[in-house]
Amino acid sequence: MAPKYYFTTRDLLTIAILASLGGVMSTYVGYLANVINRLVGVPYGAGQVVAGLHILWLILILALTGKKGSGILGGALKGFVEFISGSHLGLFVAFFSLVEGIFTEIGFWPFKKYRGLSYMAGGAMGAFAYVLAQQLANQVFDNVFLFGAVSLLSIFSGAVFAGYFGIGIVDSLEDAGIVRREIKQKKASRFTLARALAVLFVLAIAFSAIYYFALVRLKGDPLQFTVMGDVAYAKDYYQPAYSPYFVTINARLDGAVTHLPAQNYTGLPVRYVLEDARIGPDATMVDFVGSDGYTQTLNVSEAMEDDDLIIAQEDGSLRLVARGYPGQLWVSGLKMIKVY
């Protein structure tokens, strides 16, 4: 008699496919969050309203396998896929995704008899897990009110985008005969609000994901740069979203080849960026890296001294404007700031 395993081959295949899709799509979700931040006009926080999209895949794994532990396994695999896909969180993304899987199961199983409630509770808990883990690991939020506001956003997002839409997706899969029904239902297809919204949601995500991977992911957003290295946590900055913090300086470019007369430049101070990213106490150097790999280095003390260094827009991309510094420090096409 062949041995009987807890997870069937179908279970493992379902977990592998959905977790891998979730890991790859996480880069797109980050982009979508930045778009929402831009529309709202805030540098961060509002994007947590789509945090539930990270958890949707875990809810589907739990719903389709019906096995305890599948969400945790799916979270671990999703985090690994995010890591090898080049997540800016590095190896930490695997830990965060695992925690999401654990919390999703905590919310899902106690209410299993009530399908809608279990999906929404699992989604809410899973989305909140990321905010909680980030706060415990990196102290991202400076006060309890900001932490509470972002937590509520993530809980709402998890309940809607992971739970509510998860119900619609599973209903549609059951009606199509792709998966077995959890309970007996009428054979006639039922048109429900959840199902209609789920279809619209899938179509909208598919369209915008194609746009993201075809245009943004391949070309990169020229007005976005990343701060990484010895900071509280790596972070992407979309420069226009920080307009309330812009300053204007008058500077002249004196390079070996290029010379520009003194003129006004408006942009985001490097000092603000480094303070916001919360550089480590032992950090001493900062690299400014352009899209072509061109790199210039400064001492942290120089970069934090005043507002002589700003990140300004120029011809549709970003340039480091360095008042009083040699022309070679004016890095064009700025894409990354690395602290070490």
From TrEMBL:
Residues that span the membrane, as ranges: 12-33, 45-64, 84-104, 116-133, 145-170, 191-214
Pfam families attached to this UniProt entry: ABC_cobalt, Oxidored_molyb
Location of the Oxidoreductase molybdopterin-binding domain: 263-334
InterPro entries documented for this protein: ABC_thiamin-permease_prd, OxRdtase_Mopterin-bd_dom, OxRdtase_Mopterin-bd_sf
UniProt keyword terms in alphabetical order: Membrane, Transmembrane, Transmembrane helix
Membrane is among the record's keywords: yes
UniProt protein name: Sulfite oxidase and related enzyme
